[in-house]
Amino acid sequence: MIKVVKFGGSSLASAEQFAKVGKIIHADKDRRYVVPSAPGKRNAKDSKVTDMLYACYELVEAEEDFRVPLMKIKDRYDTIINGLNLKLSLEEEFKKITQNLKNGAGVDYAASRGEYLNGMVMACYLGYAFVDAAEVIFFDENGNFDADKTNRALSERLAKEERAVVPGFYGSMPDGSIKTFSRGGSDITGSIVSRAVHAACYENWTDVSGFLIADPRIIRNPKPIKTITYRELRELSYMGASVLHEEAVFPVRKAGIPINIRNTNAPEDEGTWIVESTCQQSKYTITGIAGKKGFVSVNIDKDMMNAEVGFGRKVLAAFEENEISFEHIPSGIDTMTVFVHQPEFEGKEQAVISAIHRLAEPDSIELEGDLALIAVVGRGMRATRGTAGRIFSALAHANINVKMIDQGSSELNIIIGVSNADFENAIRAIYDIFVETQL
Questions:
Q1: Max Cα separation, the chain?
Q2: CB distance 5 to 24 below 8 Å
Q3: 268: burial class by Cβ within 10 Å (0-12, 13-18, 19+)?
Q4: How many of the other CB atoms lie within 10 Å of CB of 410?
Q5: For residues 403 and 419, is the Cβ–Cβ distance under 8 A?
Q6: Under DSSP, is residue 260 helix (H, G, I), strand (E, B) or coil?
Q7: Cβ atoms of 249 and 400 closer than 8 Å
Q8: Is 244 within 8 Å of 207 (Cβ atoms)?
Q9: SS (H, E, C) 111-171
């Protein structure tokens, strides 16, 4: 059996953290392929190495001296190397980085060096082979990830290495230049490696023991989620729940590989399993609650709207003209409401209203801002009657006015709209009715 293990920046921020990671890897002989992030913060006032590299690049762009801040980054690595008593020098690597930055290597190259260098340290510490991600992870000429080419090259290369370290976050373009994924992209690399080696499990180690039912900044000590499906995760991630990069699920989902979110600082915790499907029912009706503030509802009224073919298309064309994407569209017989992001909409609101009048000829349009959307997600909702009713009851008891409710046909999630001011209290009320009352 093969396991791929990815460690986040906080797990690799210091020599002490490296030692924890080493124990975790050596505790299971199946943990054969390791994907490291760049060193993260050692404390609240510290900086992430990736942020330090971006700052260096800004100095390069401004044609200012970047060598002093680059040497501070070298000091971070030297501190880790010395703390682990490794016989490793990064002197030549930093000379190369300095020269390449002077020669215009680009921002992606600069940002990727955090993972590249940490990969070298990790490989030396573990005694594993080092495989540069630029040699096995590829993007096409448009900058899109080339999954098929990558899978072939990575599978062939890792078949020759029983144990290896592959740095996260980056790959290469057809011309050989470095290209990065979006921030947090080391999660994606771990998923790609898992697919290539046909792993039985992809362990993603971070500083939390998996997913929680709700945001701990709102709910004190929320209950953990033991098992969540890819579809549930997608819904919660989209609405703001962030432990794993949302694009990381796609390579392993296609291969049927489960993801296990684990805590480097509490390795005894089972964490959260992310799976394609499961017959295991959650202890609670819901799996999780997540939400975002900052939406506007555009309420459109027109008599006999339901009989007018193409009315919805005309309304949405007004938003498309102004390059505004929509979130949800609940509707009635003579009404249609479009929810959009407030910051994106505010500067274009009058242009959108004008376009709706021109294209759809409504009777009236009303706007309401400062709204929040909350997603209540759970596979257990399908088999439970009265879920929406319980949500309404809980919110009414908390004196919260519901602006919108929308349930998808899959019965996997219910979206509730409330005012920004009621956002936190709404989440607490929903959590209490579905979790605290079931304890």
A1: 78
A2: yes
A3: exposed
A4: 11
A5: yes
A6: strand
A7: no
A8: no
A9: HHHHHHHHHHHHHHHHCCEECCHHHCCEECCCCCECHHHHHHHHHHHHCCCCCEECCCCEE
- The phi, psi pair for 5, rounded to 5°, reads -120, 130
Amino acid at 351: A
In angstroms, the CA 304 to CA 33 distance is 61
DSSP H or E run through 56: helix 49-61
Among 224, 196, 198, residue whose Cα is nearest residue 133: 196
Alpha-carbon distance of 332 to 307, in angstroms, equals 12
Say which residue the tokens 């509707």 belong to: 331
One-letter amino acid at 76 equals R
Helix (H) or strand (E) holding 54: helix 49-61
**What phi-psi label fits residue 386: left (phi over 0), alpha (psi between -120 and 50 degrees) or beta?**
left
Element (H, E) at 406: strand 404-407
Q: What is the pLDDT along the chain (439 residues), one digit of tens a residue?
A: 999 999 999 999 999 999 999 999 999 999 999 999 999 999 989 999 999 999 999 999 999 999 999 999 999 999 999 999 999 999 999 999 999 999 999 999 999 999 999 999 999 999 999 999 999 999 999 999 999 999 999 999 999 999 999 999 999 999 999 999 988 889 999 999 999 999 999 999 998 888 889 988 999 989 888 998 888 888 887 777 666 777 778 888 888 899 999 999 999 999 999 998 887 777 788 889 999 999 999 999 999 888 889 999 999 999 999 999 998 888 888 999 999 999 999 999 999 999 999 999 999 999 999 999 999 988 877 767 778 888 889 999 999 999 888 876 566 888 999 999 999 999 999 999 988 776 5
SS3 breakdown of the chain: % helix, strand, coil, rounded to 5?
A: 40, 20, 35
Sheet of 272-275, strands arranged across: 129-130, 164-165, 31-36, 3-7, 201-206, 259-263, 272-275, 227-229
